[in-house]
Amino acid sequence: xxxxxxxxxxxxxxxxxxxxxxxxxxxxxxxxxxxREAARSLTGFATSVIGCKCEAGVERELGDGETPDGRPxxxxxxxxxxxxxxxxxxxxxxxxxxxTCPTTACFDGLxxxxxxxxxxxxxxVFGDGFQASKVxxxxxxxxxxxxxxxxxxxxxxxxxxxxxxxxxxILAESADAALGAAEAAVDAMRGLEGVILPFPGGVVRSGxxxxxxRYKGMVATTNxxxxxxxxxxxxxxxxxxxxxxLEIVLDGxxxxxxxxxxxxxxxxxxxxxxxxxxxxxYGGKLGPHHFHLRRIMGxxxxxxxxxxxxxxxxxxxxxxxxxxxxxxxxxxxAAPPATPPAGPTDxxxxx
Amino acid sequence: MSDAVVLTLRAPLAxxxxxxxxxxxxxxxxxxxxxxxxPVWAGRTRARLGDFFAVDGERAARxxxxxxxxxxxxxxxxxxxxxxxxxxxxxxxxxxxMQGGTLVVHGDVGHDAGAGMAGGVLCVSGRAGxxxxxxxxxxxxxxxxxxxxxxxxxxxxxxxxxxxxxxVVGGAAGPGAGRAMIAGTLIVFGELGPxxxxxxxxxxxxxxxxxxxxxxxRYACTYRPPHLAVTLTYxxxxxxxxxxxxxxTGEYRRYSGDLAELGRGEILEWIEP
Lengths: 351, 273
Hints:
The structure holds two protein chains of two kinds. By secondary structure, chain A is of the alpha+beta class. Helices cover about 20% and strands about 30% of the residues of chain A. In chain A, the strands form two sheets. Chain A has a 17-stranded mixed β-sheet that branches. In chain A, strands 14-15 form a two-stranded antiparallel sheet. Chain B folds into two domains: about 1-60, no CATH class; about 75-270, Glutamate synthase, alpha subunit, C-terminal domain (Pectate Lyase C-like, 3 Solenoid). Classes of the chains: A alpha+beta, B alpha/beta. Chains A and B meet through strand 8 and strand 10 of A and strand 12 and helix 4 of B.
């Protein structure tokens, strides 16, 4: 049984994702320009925990009425694998990128989270004893004197269990088609609450597999099963006619946020020149969160719930899916895979 | 169990009444009869709350007081939680030493409102007397936490000796506002009397209508204090205070002092654009 959206095949597979720790940082500034500058620096070189120790991205821009100081702001989501890592990375990065940026202030975006990290308390010592605190509405803020005036930061930041590694792959006839579809997906997903796309422009061209066939010590190497230039010399997973693959990777505050964003993104990526949408996993053995593509798109994979499946002919057509048509509970808890993965048929998740 | 306990004054009072027992957290476990039996002091005479107030409802942490209780003192003194609404003016020491909960007075309050307060919220829609948020008699420290919002004017020594917490005065404040503050924040939207912030150690006095800066304070700079934007935005959203945009986004002259003391306090004087 094939499932298609506007002629694009939705493969019967799932994205495998992991538990991470997440913080939401709200940066405000005198103007949106400086909030963006700080957010850009803060989230720079934060694409993958493998090489960057954290993953971060802009969640969305905030209006004057959404920030503690009534100024324009930006919400950034910050992910690490461990709780201690999150504190370290936040202290390092906020200290170097937000404290240093003109006119900014920095606030906790998860004030109701029970787990707290005393990030502002750690950064306050930059004030060399001249810092001072204020309690407003039950929250303690630190005022750190700087050359420009004062830097303000929440004493503590909340921490939640998040989900990292939601993904889908766009298998296209050409590099241009893949890029166009990826851009459409990213444009549709940007600004959705609770998710970030940590890679450049939200897109990954170098999906990887775990380990190496040749080099010991390499944590991750090219995902040769999905590399078009290796089609003839490796156990390829590429359907006929696919000449370029791009991946969208998502981290979210919870599985529902990732499911919602994947649904929007996949739908937007189903455009001309795209042959199929698939996802990366480890056969279900490593990550506790499984995002079944067909279930997310409301197309009823095994055990799937929600709206009736959009089964279409191979020639495509039919109405575009409505974002709200899919049922909930798309992410299923981990269970032993019914069939062990046979070789590198699914896109590797290590990046 | 009722939604609320309502205390209605039976007749106008001919003398002052000390009704410290009126605190919502204490009423939460009491039956109607037990509430009526709580002790009050009419001058030097011990009496029962029920002698002066009709009690309606029981076992509720929400309390309403009805009638002209301007001569009833110590309402909500030491309260730890719940909600107390006074539907009119109240006497002295309202919310003094309170540690939690919300106390709203829909009128004026006397002296020592919120004195020695450690937590919770005290809102006064009218004016406050002297020493709002200050120290209780015999104590060396004023309020140590919580928030006091007086929409009208305040008497002398508002926020004097405060250790922590926030006091907001919507109107003018009398002499000695923020006197000898140890820390905390006092915001005055109206005019300030003489001696404001004198002997302050670490506290913040925000003056929206000018201030006579003590000679023991020194000018530091003119800037936009980021913590004040947070505080004023919070007051606007949480208390629906009519804070002007120019107050939130505007510039302030910062004076450090009191240099005869620790010198880590500040006066922030708003500059009208």
